[in-house]
Amino acid sequence: MDLVNNYYGSSDEEEKDTSNIQNTNTKSKSLVTINATPDTGFDDHSDRIYTSETATELTVNVPYDDLMRPMLGPENPSGNSKNRISTQNVLTGHVEQQAISESDFRQQLRTFETYGYARDPSVGNANLSGQTGQGIMGTGYVGNLAAAAHMSGASIYDAVPKNLRPNKDLKKRRNKKGDLSVVEGENAYKGPWAGYEGEEELKQKRVTAPPEGEGEEGEDKKQKQDEDVEDEEEMGQSLAAPGAEAGKKKRNRGMEFGTEQTTFHGQSEYDYLGRTYMAVPQDLDVNLLSESGSQECFIPKKCIHTWDGHARGVSAIRFLPQSAHLLLSAGMDNKVKIWDVYHDRSLLRTYLGHTKAIRDIAFNNDGSRFLSASYDRNVKLWDTETGQCIRSFTTGKVPYCVTFNPDEDKQNVFLTGCSDKKIVQFDINSGEITQEYDQHLGAVNTITFVDDNRRFITTSDDKTMRAWEFDIPVVIKYIAEPDMHSMPAVTLHPNNKWMACQSLDNQIVVYGARDRFRMNRKKRFQGHLVAGYACKPGFSPDGRFISSGDSDGNVWTWDWKTCRILKKFKAHDKVVMNTIWHPHETSKMATCSWDGLIKYWD
Predict the structure, then answer these.
(1) Which residues contact 290 (CB under 8 A, 6 or more apart)?
(2) CA separation for the pair 353, 262 (Å, rounded)
């Protein structure tokens, strides 16, 4: 208010104001004066007028001193913004470019790394001696000035006396070779086998030091090594195999045998006739005991049910052999579950016996038992009805696939393909390895029995396919082409004459399942994207249609004869791993995905 009065007020108004104030003071001295605009802050800046730097028009008369005052804060050492922008060549300011030879730069760099100082390469200034580069305090050097003075400014390439070398005490001194004429004793001849000084003292310290396993530090280190280091020794016998060596040390991978659990989720395990869920239902419109493929099949159109019991993705599903009234699923939540396909379609039982995700499952011929292969390096045999874990098998490697021998007289034998490039044959009764097939150069992905179960076909990450005689570890057919890709999933056609192989170049290729195992180049099923995923193809029971999932959650259906795409529909939110057709229905298909859902289509 005072400033405004100074600039805009007149002398007459001032006289009137002062006279009025004197009158009021004389009339009533008891009145209290109230200041409606008190001063704030500690500094008195009432005599200044501040303006914006970008203001182009002033409405008041501002003194020259106030106009030329700097902005709030420290002044810019580089001058105004226009000059700074004109000289700025990097984001943070201005960098001067200097010319220095590569050899000189390397020399000063190595000198700085070794001695801790280097010559200042700057130009445009000089030190006290007139040399280019002022350095610290005009010495011409940067870094450790004391070391530079002690070394007389020597570089890495200059000759330095031994007493000035920083590594003078690091070189080991060799003991004397001794006298050639002395065989034993103090001055005995050692020749080139003479050791170094201080070596004997170091050996004495190692001898007197406590062993690695003793003490808390050694015990912790040993325990950590046992946890981290992979066991390369193959353990062919089962964890529960009778007659195993008691003193043989075995690593605990996964859940120990005997600690497996099972949970029944239904109301009662037995009905009024004493039957379990394994009994084939007879109150249906479909004959579940008929021969598979006798009915004409059609492409499913809509989802009629969704099973959502798994907490993570589902890697494999299998129908119960023969009747297919039960559905077995293997999940990445370390659980195996069995579901009712008919009636209320509820969850019947959960099998808990693995500590890591389950890779593959396989039923025997009658469905009374099944195998589960997990990333915890164990293959476990389960009783489908009671949920009991009968036996556990391991080779110390991750099993990628597992399958029973389909012959009725060989139901006690199963094969598993492992990550160590081997196919291992186990005997369920003894729990021992009876045969090993070792020819692949990569992890074994699939095992498929062909030719009346006398032979089997294996595919691997080495982009080859090999045929074997059962129980003979010799390859009878080797299939490898330059344009072949890895085939992580294989399905046998219902007529047992062809194999559909999911190739990672986004197509399904067909090979013969008889003697020659040749590729059928007239049959290729393309259009879907499966690169990187082991999506297992599926066949309709009559063999007219072939189906497969893809990485986008779609299900594709092709015509087997013409190889034309018949239908594509969105089934899941993530990659579809399996598409299997019900063997006794005309158009029912089950799909599983990494979104944790199993869907039933009709």
Answers:
(1) 584
(2) 8
Tell me what pLDDT residue 563 has. 93
Q: Phi and psi at residue 221, in whole multiples of 5°? A: -65, -40
- State the pTM of this model: 0.60
* Alpha-carbon gap, residue 335 to 374, rounded angstroms: 10
Nearest to 361 by CA among 412, 406, 400, 306: 400
Contact in structure between 345 and 304 (CB atoms under 8 Å): no
What are the residues facing 149 on neighbouring strands? none
CB within 8 Å of 332: residues ≥ 6 apart: 310, 312, 313, 314, 315, 357, 358, 594
* Cα–Cα distance measured from residue 369 to residue 388, given in angstroms and rounded to the nearest whole number: 10
Report which secondary-structure segment, H or E, holds 23. helix 11-27
Contact present, 512 and 503 (Cβ < 8 Å)? no
Phi, psi for residue 201 in degrees, rounded to 5 = -65, -40
Q: What is the pLDDT of residue 253?
A: 59
CA distances from 29 to 17, 24, 36, 171, 530 (A): 17, 8, 20, 99, 99
- Residues 50-101: pLDDT tens digits? 666 677 777 777 777 777 776 665 555 555 555 666 677 777 777 777 777 8
CB contact burial 222-249 (16+ within 10 A = b; e otherwise): eeeeeeeeeeeebbbbbbebeeeeeeee
Q: For residue 497, give both structure tokens.
A: 């004459």
Whether residue 473 contacts residue 479, with contact meaning beta carbons closer than 8 Å, is answered with no
Q: Tell me the H-state helices in 145-297.
A: 145-150, 199-208, 215-228
Any residues with CB less than 8 A from the CB of 138 and at least 6 apart, and which? 127, 128
Under DSSP, is residue 315 helix (H, G, I), strand (E, B) or coil?
strand
Residue 81: CB atoms within 10 A of its CB come to 10
Bridge partners (DSSP) listed for residue 418? 399
Q: What is the pLDDT of residue 116?
A: 87
Q: Which one, of 391, 384, 352, lies nearest residue 367 by Cα?
A: 384
Question: Which among 486, 516, 482, 515 is positioned nearest to 501, based on CA atoms?
Answer: 486
Placement of tokens 């869907």 in the chain: 599
Task: Going from the first residue of the chain to its last (602 residues), give the mean pLDDT of each consecutive group of 10, the final group possibly shorter.
Answer: 48 48 48 62 58 72 74 58 67 74 86 86 55 65 85 83 67 76 81 75 60 46 46 41 41 71 90 89 87 88 93 94 93 94 92 94 94 94 93 93 93 94 94 93 94 93 94 92 93 93 94 89 92 93 94 94 94 94 92 95 93
